[in-house]
Amino acid sequence: MSDTTPKDELAGTEQPFVQHLIELRDRMVKATIAVMVACAALAIYPGPAELYDLLAAPLVAQLPAGATLIATSVISPFLVPLKIMLMTAFLLALPLVLYQAWAFIAPGLYTHEKKLVIPLVVSSTLLFLVGVSFCYFFVFGQVFKFIQSFAPKSITAAPDIEAYLSFVISMFIAFGLAFEVPIVVIVLARMNIVTIEKLKEFRSYFIVLAFIIAAIVTPPDVVSQLALAIPMCILYEVGIWAAQLFLKHTQAPDAE
């Protein structure tokens, strides 16, 4: 009797764990399929080359007349547009990818926790996309215009497409994550790591921190640094305000 008890306990705990792994695999497969479907749609229209032209438009608009980007590697004209297509497909499929993540963790959450997670998932996705859009439509044009104004007349600008892609991705990530400041503030307050009062007291330090981060992750020009630091400071204030609302409406029933 004693020999079978450990096996029964093991069998009782192993099966749910295996089921969780199977569900995780299925969710990941569905998320991958969503990205691949978006990628196939982009391959048909507008196409990888057109996507790169769209991404390069802010820089090309600031180059001297007749100047274009160049490819210094043999396979760059193929790989770079392909990478851009995959990146765009992931952004398009991001809501479905996040839904699969949510569907996996939701059964293990309490009702008051679900009230917190759903708004955070939606708002964090929107904020990231807003940060990327702000970078593309506003920051790129101003930064490239500022840089070209300092270029000597004896130099013909011909940026490499791989270097430009690397720059774009780093800037997109920087601005996308910077716009997540309210989410970080809300989570810190909701998990009782810091209080609202402490967040307000930290305001002046955060302003300095925002400008330091902007100086590190952006190019060494005033335009891009201000374009990153100022929204971070504003979003910090938004995060404090939103955290107070979340603390009020997402408390556990016994805490209320």
Topology (elements, then pairings):
Layout: H1 4-44, H2 48-60, H3 76-105, H4 111-149, H5 161-178, H6 181-190, H7 196-201, H8 203-217, H9 222-249
Helix pairs in contact: 1-3, 2-3, 3-4, 4-5, 4-9, 6-9, 8-9
Provide a quick synopsis of the model.
The chain has helices at residues 4-44, 48-60, 76-105, 111-149, 161-178, 181-190, 196-201, 203-217, 222-249. The protein is an all-alpha fold and 256 residues long.
Question: Can you offer a commentary on this structure?
Answer:
- There is one protein chain.
- This protein has nine helices and no strands.
- Residues 4-14 have low confidence and may be disordered.
- It has helices at 4-44, 48-60, 76-105, 111-149, 161-178, 181-190, 196-201, 203-217, 222-249.
- With 256 residues, it is mainly alpha-helical.
- 22% of the residues are buried.
**Mean pLDDT, all residues:** 86
Task: Write down the secondary-structure element order.
Answer: HHHHHHHHH
Describe the oligomeric state of these chains in a short phrase. single chain
* C-alpha-based Rg, rounded: 24 Å
